[in-house]
Amino acid sequence: MSRTRLFASLTGMVFLVNLARVVYAPLVEPLQGALQVGPGAIGGVVTLVWVGSALPRIPTGYLLTKVPRHRVVMGAGVVLTLAGTFAATANSLPTLGLGALLMGLASGAYFVSANPLVSELYPRRVGRAMGIHGMASQVAAVVAAPLVGFALVAFTWRHVFAGVALGALAVTTTLTVVARRTELPEASGVDRNLPAAVRAQWRIVGTGVVILGATGFVWQGVFNFYVSYLLDRGLAEPTARDLLTLVFAAGVPAFLVSGRLVDRLPQVPYILGVMTVFVGGVFALTAAEGLLALAVVSVFLGYVVHSLFPALDAYLLGSLPDEHRGGAYAVYSGGMMLVQATGSSAVGALVAAGVAYDVVFRGFATVLAVVLVALALLLTAGRLPTTGEPA
Q1: Residue 15: how many CB atoms within 10 A of its CB?
Q2: Fewer CB near the last or first residue (10 Å), C or N of the chain?
Q3: Count: domains in the chain
Q4: pLDDT tens digits, one per residue of 299-321
């Protein structure tokens, strides 16, 4: 029962850390108006969230060789509380950017420490556990756009960040109490040598970075400018936000279903299959005409891309040995986040330079298709790892 309570506390925390990242997407248009800046500038702020999420991941992996995972999770909650407070009081683009960076830092430290802990709480059902944990994270993405819409009507954008800060304070306090009463898994914290983990597991780490880094780069660019893209297609702003909500809502069951599937199917072929469908979904988005078609594609695209996240986590965390899990996962996590974090800036810069959204999205999807073909050839040749290397 104690592990169940700890897991429940972690699902509450992951809801908030992901809300802190994704809430910037529906705020892109309001923040441009409030701060009198263009899409390139706001794209840079959004990128800072994801760069911040990437930066602490490898250092956190080293920290986990010295400090228990649950204590790092608590520290991430404290940082998120402070970051939300800072963002709520920002009065310029640089201060808002700093708040975004701090929110990202909290999320990065959380995921690197919490994901291995979740997998160790339920070692025989890694995919299912990661799916439930990811589903809680995805619920945050679903409520982000409606939350922003409500805040803009009843309050201001500042209240969104203030709410994140208050929620983080409450959940961090709860998690601290529960963790003290929980007997932690024996596997948790036995990884004490980060360089050795990377040397032993570089093949599976590199595979994960390529797969989720490349796919995430495209997805970051698409979803952070989803509302702006749909406005460019002629939709009203409330309708565009509703479609973004559909994208995220479709991801809620995707986490649970994909987590179960990846426990039962050959993992690497399944992951590459999901990538293939995602590429097709991006092309379908640019070809869709009319509100109904855009809604259908939004649901499809959201379900497919969010199926990839628990599958990758289960692939790595379920394959890596106990003594390498924390360090190798941290390096993978940091590497793939650094790659994907620049997706928003790339889209913002290209659009600001006059390139149409459709051209940008199709170009990104084409590059991802090339990466996918290369991975498929390596799989056929038996060069992609299906498990971590033995110690």
Answers
A1: 21
A2: N
A3: 1
A4: 999 999 999 999 998 898 888 88
